[in-house]
Amino acid sequence: MSDRWWFCLTHMAVEPDEGCPNKDRMGPYESREAAANALKTAADRNKQWKEGDKAWDGDD
């Protein structure tokens, strides 16, 4: 079993290392669960960035 997981944007599914080309995937992630949440994680990060989250600027 793979130690890394990816979220395939073509199939909208979690894949192990052996899967679609990386250009069609998000990742890698350390767990299957993290890969399954890839779209939510990206949306949350985009929202934080748009709202000017200081952590993104290194101003903790």
Mean pLDDT level:
89
Main sheet characteristics: 3 strands, antiparallel
Beta content: 15-25%
**Count of strand segments:** 3
- What order do the SSEs take from the amino end to the carboxyl end, as H and E? EEEHHH
Classification by helices and strands? alpha+beta
Oligomer: single chain
Count of alpha and pi helical runs: 3
**Percent helix range:** 25-40%
**Count of separate structural domains:** 1
Strand order of the largest sheet: 2-1-3
Gap between N and C termini: 38 Å
Q: Which residue ranges are poorly predicted, with pLDDT under 50 across at least 5 consecutive positions?
A: none
Dominant shape: elongated
Q: For the CA atoms, what is the radius of gyration?
A: 13 Å
